[in-house]
Amino acid sequence: MHHGAEVLLSLFVVFVAAQIGGEIAQRLKMPAVVGEIAAGCLIGPYALGWVKLNEPLEVLAELGAVFLLFSVGLETRAGDLRKVGRVATLVGVSGVVLPFVFGGLWAWASGFETPKAMFVAAAFVATSAGITARVLQELGVLGRMESRIILGAAVIDDILAMLLLGMVTAIQGGGGVNVVSLLVVLAQAVGFVALVTLVGTRVMKKSSPLMDAPIHPHSPLTLSLIICLGLAVAASFIGLAAIIGAFLAGMIVAETQQRHSLERQVQVIMAFLVPFFFVVTGAKVDVRQLGSVSAVGMVAVVTLLAVVSKLVGCGLAALSTGRRSALIVGVGMVPRGEVGIIVASLGLQAAVFSETLYAVIIAMSLLTSVIAPPVLKALFSGEKPEPHEDVSHLIGVEETGHS
Amino acid sequence: MHHGAEVLLSLFVVFVAAQIGGEIAQRLKMPAVVGEIAAGCLIGPYALGWVKLNEPLEVLAELGAVFLLFSVGLETRAGDLRKVGRVATLVGVSGVVLPFVFGGLWAWASGFETPKAMFVAAAFVATSAGITARVLQELGVLGRMESRIILGAAVIDDILAMLLLGMVTAIQGGGGVNVVSLLVVLAQAVGFVALVTLVGTRVMKKSSPLMDAPIHPHSPLTLSLIICLGLAVAASFIGLAAIIGAFLAGMIVAETQQRHSLERQVQVIMAFLVPFFFVVTGAKVDVRQLGSVSAVGMVAVVTLLAVVSKLVGCGLAALSTGRRSALIVGVGMVPRGEVGIIVASLGLQAAVFSETLYAVIIAMSLLTSVIAPPVLKALFSGEKPEPHEDVSHLIGVEETGHS
């Protein structure tokens, strides 16, 4: 019973820290996310030590990320995503290749053998959709073309990153790369995404009236929660991130007539769970490992490489949308967040990464996650206010006339 | 990562099982709770084994109970509770004494020595506010006088049960009963409840406009969540059930102007979390231990004693409210739920209970939880429909006239 009280206490501390951190960040005109991550660093086991990371906290954090991406999916129409499909694919691919090459070269120049260098390079690759998605949502720009490209590219990116990770761990494990098994993994992932978006979208459109059946009060909500959890589980079983499944779930549920009431309801669940995701992400940084001068220099170099490679890789691929939009897309893909942390943990387990390299990669993941949101905010708000999205001609309102 | 996928899968299975179980129960005209508990028994580790109980599941279950009682608190006004204070106290006390005496006598007659018999008796005592509260909420009768008596008595009951448990574990541990330390525990508990209800109520009434300040979108919600988690933690640190703290938190938040929008928002969080509470409760029953004829007989006797002692103890104490109301209060106090299970677990750990007695007590806790809800439902719905709560004279509507 007393253990239960301690776990409950840790949830309380994390939740309160998130609110305070978010509040401070917003007063400093920064996105709330930044403050939540920073609060996590501060109260985490490596700094003040006010919370120990326990499994329930990790699961609440994962659920937070799942519902975050589910709600982002709810605000995304499959049709809109398809329109930017070609650019998003280009951005996703180019945003994987460049960081992998840059990261590999850096590791190789630092004296790692080729297989290990490839593992290090993998940590440069993945994008954390969660952090950017939250910022886009906070800014209310999820409907923008750049946001759609970022979200589409994040799905492609996750599939490629997963393949890459499978490849480097296989090489690291001593076995050669099994092309057939990699192709199977690829086919599974692409098949999953295609099946869910194509079939799911149609099924949901048709079953929309069914969700209205007054079986019990929360029917549309509980059905949506089942779809969300179910696809998150399915995605993580075929090796994709659970949040990709949740994003797709949100996208197909968005085809129902209940999407607007569901959006509001999911935001309530998010208000409770999402803070756990960001605070726990921050709490994983071992700031003590970064005390030496050489480590600080290493963090600077690695972070710079990570930012530039992603910015250039994604930005160039999106150049057809205009320079400013390309810049927004590039910045939006910069955060490595929890995905970089996962790769680093695998590297530590496999004894490829030293304790210091581990801390450096995690610091890079966090720094990219903290740098990108304010820049993104500045890029969006630095624009001339949009002329009501050019809908004036659609609804027959003219600029002249009534003042 | 794969472990994470398995935990996510277990959440998915539990959530889906709860929906199916709840649905079936409602089609059989039973409260959804019954179906959710039964689903837990079925898929739990002792029957089908589709889910293993892991710590994240336990924490989600506890959070479910916390938010359930928080929402019940939101529908309860401190003033209303004070009106039934005298009867509720009587019901609480009498509903602890009689089951303790009956349980002790049975254990003593079954051959337990006095200290062990007292431990067994303690398992007969506690009431699970969660199960009854859910049923009252489902039936929409939380505003009724009987419901208020039940909720008030549940708070008294929990304080007394905690003292009793402290006493029997002390006696069991060989040491005598330390009257001073018991008094300290009592003073803490009563002081906590008094402080929260009296001071909290006033503070919340005054800070209501503050919660409207547009600091960030979910401010009233996040502030309420902080109060809810905070008081749940505080309650469990002084040895009360976390849900008692959550109930009090709901009651003081109900004094703000935002109570109605908060009620709706908390219901969304409940739709996600409460199913975990009931399914996990059900999953803890080791049905295999109950296979033998003697065990079945023992379950029957123990359950009968538990039902009768609570029914008589609480019913007699509430007789001043009329016979039917007294019956409703008595039935409402019958479920032992997770509280009985906690006492049984402590008894097993302390080697006071055999594996069989443990399973018997748990079966009793579950049976009382499954028997009471349908009876409660029948008692409430068997009444003549209320004449619109006699508000007609308040709003100036007359029965005659416009048809």
Detail the topology: elements first, then pairings:
Two copies of one chain form a homodimer.
Chain A (H helix, E strand, L loop, with lengths): L1 H26 L4 H12 L11 H20 L3 H6 L1 H25 L4 H9 L6 H11 L5 H28 L6 H34 L6 H19 L4 H12 L5 H25 L9 H25 L5 H10 L4 H13 L5 H27 L10 H4 L8
Helix pairs in contact in A: 1-2, 1-12, 2-12, 2-16, 3-7, 3-11, 3-12, 5-6, 5-8, 5-13, 6-8, 7-16, 8-9, 8-14, 9-10, 9-11, 10-11, 13-14, 13-16, 14-16, 15-16
Tell me the helix content of chain A: over 70%
Shape of chain A: globular
- The CATH first-level class of chain A comes to Mainly Alpha
Uncertain ranges of chain A: 384-403
Number of helices of chain A: 17
SSE class of chain A: mainly alpha
State the oligomer.
homodimer
- The secondary-structure element order of chain A is HHHHHHHHHHHHHHHHH
Main sheet overview of chain A? none
Distance between the termini of chain A: 67 Å
Number of strands of chain A: 0
- What's the domain count of chain A? 1
Largest interface: A-B, 45 and 45 residues
The CATH architecture of chain A is Up-down Bundle
Residue share in β-strands of chain A? under 5%
Kindly provide the radius of gyration of chain A, computed on alpha-carbon positions and rounded to a whole number of angstroms.
21 Å
CATH topology of chain A: Na+/H+ antiporter like fold
Mean pLDDT of chain A: 82
